[in-house]
Sequence to fold (700 residues):
Amino acid sequence: MAGNSIKIALIGNPNTGKTSVFNQLTGLNQQVGNYPGITVERKAGSCKLSPTVKGQILDLPGTYSLNASSMDENVVIELLMNRNDKDYPDVAVVVTDVENLKRNLLLFTQIKDLEIPTILVINMADRMDKKGITLDIPYLENHLKTRIALVSSRKGQGIAHLKNLILAYSALPTAPCLNASSIDPDYFNNLRKAFPNQLLYKLWLVITQDVNFGMVDRKEMQGTSFTKTKPELKRLQQKETIKRYQFINDVLKVGQTIDHSNAKDLRARLDRVLTHKVFGYLIFLAILMLIFQSIFSWSEIPMNFIDEQFASLSAHISTQLPAGRLNDLVAQGIIPGIGGVVIFIPQIAFLFLFISILEESGYMSRVVFLMDKIMKRFGLSGKSVVPLISGTACAIPAIMSARNIENWRERLITILVTPFVTCSARLPVYTILISLIIPNEYVLGIFNLQGLTLMLLYLLGFSGAILSAWILNKILSIKHKTFFVAEMPNYKLPLLKNVALTVIEKTKAFVFGAGKIILALSVIIWFLGSHGPGDDFKNAEKIITDYGRTYGTDSAKWPDQIAAYQLEHSYIGIAGKTIEPVIRPLGYDWKVGIAIVSSFAAREVFVGTLATIYNIGNTDDEATIRQRMAADVNNETGEKVFNFATGASLLLFYAFAMQCISTLAITKKETNSWTWPLIQLFGMSAFAYVVSLIAYQLLK
Ligand code: GDP
Fold:
C-alpha cells in the first residue's frame, strides 16, 4: 500500500463481467492506453474505497489461464511475476461468472497459488434464481482459502461489500489453495537445481509460458540439470490443469447446487435461429444493412453541422487576425485540420454504439461463430467481419474495431486489408470519373451502366481485401496459436453504462491517438500546397494579371487562374510534375499527378484539386468540373485526356491505392509500429500501379 491507496488488479476470464465490475468501481475515472511496446490495451482507473483510502485499479486483459497462449495473457503473467513492477498489486480481484464457475475457477486457483492476497468475485448473482443456483459461501471461502464477494455488476449489488473486502486486504489469507508442486515433485526437484533462487511455481509458469510461445527448446535447456522435452512439458501442463479441475470439482460438489428444472432455455432456441445455416446469414445481413443505413443517415446531420462550424470558424478567424502567415496557418491549416479530425466523431461514435450493443447483448459471438469457418480460410477471423463491413463507411473506426480480435496475426491481417474496402471518401471520386467515361445507359432495360460500374468497384474493393488477406496469410511468418475456442455467452440486455463508456473511450482514443497525427499531416500538406520555391509562386498574381491585361482575358476569372497558377508552382505542384514520367504509362498527365499527390492526404481532395487546376472557383459545382475535364485535350497527341482508358485506369488506381494519411496514422497507432503502415502504403500503391498500368495499356 502506497500512502493511502491500494493497488488492485482485476483479473478474470473473458465475458465474466470484468469490465462491468471495473465500470461499477471506477465510473468515469478511467484511463486507457497501451502497454509499452505492445498493442494490448491497458485500462486503469481509480475509486474511493473509504473517505480516506483510494483504490487504484488495473483492469487486466481477459485471460483463461496463466499458461499464456496469447499476448493478452502474457501481460497478466508478466505483471504478477514481477514484484518490482510499479503496478504489482496489493490485492488481486478475480472475477468469475456464477454460471461458469467451474471453468472460471481454474484461473482463480492459479492466481491464488502465486500467494498474492486474492478476493474472489462471483458475478452475475442476479441470474442465480433463474438458473436455480445456490451457493454455500462460507464453505467456498473456507476451501478456496479466500474471501468472496457475491456481486451483480448489472444491478450494482455487492460492490460495497467488495470495497470493504479490498480495504481489509492485509487480513486476507495468502496461502495457496492447491500448490502445483503436488503435481510432479520430481520435476520440481530438477527445477530447484537449475534455478535455485526463485519461487518454484512462478518458474513453472514462466517455463510453460515459454513452451507455448515456442521459446524453449532442448538446446537451451542443455547445461542445466533441467532435462524435460517440450512434449513432456506440455503433458505436465495438462496434468496441472486436470489436477486443478479435480480440486475445483471437489469444492463445488458441496459448495454449489444447481436445480436444472428451474433453468429456462430461451437461449437454445434463439441460438438455433441466429446461427442457422441460412437464416443466420440473412438475419446478420439485415442487421448490418440497418446499422449502415443508420450510421449514414444519423451522422449526416452532425457531420454537416461540424463542417459548417469549422468553415465559419476559419472565416471568422481570418477576418479577426491580421493578414499574414499566422492567419493563413490558423485559418487554412490548423482549423481545417482539427475539423478533419472532429468530423469523423459522429461516424465513430455511432459505429461503436452499435457494435457495443451487439457485443453486450451476446449476439456478436453468434456472428463470429457463423463467419469463422469462411474467414479462417483467408487468414482472417470471424471477428474480421465487423471491421471489413465498417470499412464501407471509413477505414478509421473499422481498423479500431479490429481490437476485438484476440489473435494478433488475424488482427494484423484484418488491419492491413481493411483499407481496400470502398470507403465513403472514394465515392465522390468514383462518381465524377464514372460520369466521364461510362455512358448513362441502361442494359436489359433496368440496370443502369453507371450504377453497375459503381457496384463493380465495391466488389473489387472487397475482393482486394480478401485476396490480399489470403496472400498475407501465406507469407506472414508470425505464429500465434490460440488454444481455446471462444464460448458463447448468454443473451443479455445491454448495460447502458457499458455501452456509453465504450463509445466515450473509443472516441477519445481516436481523437487523441490518430487525431494528433492527422492534424500534423494536414498542416504539412496545406503548407506544401500553399507555398512554393522561386519567383513563379510569389509573383503569380502579377503574372496572371499582366497576361490578362495584355491578352484581354475575363478579369472575373483571374482569382481562380491565380490560384491554379500558384498550385502549379507550389511544392505539391512541383511534386505532381516530377512524378509525371512515372504516371504517364498509366495515362495521367501532371494535372492528375497533382491531384494524386494531394490525395495522399485524403482521397476526397481529388475533386477539389482538379477543380482548382481546371480554373474553377466553385468546387461544389461538379457539372462544370466535369465539362472542363471532358474537354481537356492533350497538346501532344490531340487526344482527350479523360478518355475511357485513362478513366478506367484512374478508377482502378483509386480503388486500390493507399491514399489516406488518417488510415496510416490509425494503423501506426494500432500496430504500434511504422512497419505495417509503410507496408500498407507501398504494397497497396504498388498493386494499384500495376493494375492501372495493365488496364491503361490494354484499353488505350
Ligand atoms: P468482460 O468480458 O469480462 O469484461 O465482461 P463484460 O463486463 O463486458 O460483460 C459481459 C456481459 O455480461 C455483458 O453483456 C454484460 O452486460 C453482462 N453482465 C455483466 N455483469 C452482469 C451481471 O451482474 N448480471 C448480468 N445478468 N449480466 C452481467
Observations:
- The first strand starts at residue 5 and ends at 12.
- Residues 279-424+445-476 form one domain.
- Residues 12, 14-20, 62, 123-124, 126-127, 152-154, 360, 489, 492, 495, 498 surround guanosine-5'-diphosphate (CB under 6 Å).
